[in-house]
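Batch manifest, entry 17 of 40.
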Amino acid sequence: MTIEFRREGKVGIYTINNPSTMNALDNCTLNDIQEHLIDFNKDPDLWVGIITGKGEKAFCSGFDIGEFSKTRCSADQPTGIANPMRELEISKPLIAAVNGAALGGGLELMLICDLSIASDKAVFGFPEVKIGLIPGWSGTQLLSRQVTLCQAAELLFTGENIDTQTALRFGLINRIVPQEQVLQSAIFLAESICRSAPLAVQAAKEALLKGRQVSFKEGLQIEDALNIYLKTTGDFKEGIESFQAKRQPRFKGN
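Output type: structure tokens
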């Protein structure tokens, strides 16, 4: 089993289970991740997802270099390796619980997530230039939308790793915790999100991601349209009623 899955309430936890190779990715693992995330997106009982790695050394060390010899390059797959997550749109929040090294495709996997909790022993990097490539699973585009241009250039051009303090300063991660607390801290954050109305959280994610791709005026239109929709939901009604009654809301995602 390359991906372990378990539920904790409304939180789905997905663990890359290949510690002998620092949780490197092969085609089988990539397909498993895609299938799990598709199921997560469809499951009305799961509101937040967490991705982490097995063991203490690595969140994910990227694609297994040995797999390159088994693949062929093409115009559609310039590295020879398809990333099934590249075009995958996840409407719900994803949290990366970065228990160790996040390198290459592992850092790209982290960047797909909305929030990141990192071990104080984690390192981050894009070493692709050291073998004659560049990140090919959206890494150059995701990175440049999250950090400054010069910070992205440093990571991409040198291929060198950075530590958690630098990653925090760059804005790559949300917070640093001791290694033994990484997953529990991610679960705590996920449970905090689950106390909010799930449709509103999903709408906030949609507005955030779509808004940065368009003009400010168009972003406001996206925001307005989503709020008009949210006012028709049962969760909005429940939110108002619970506020007036001074009780905790019981959101259902409808």
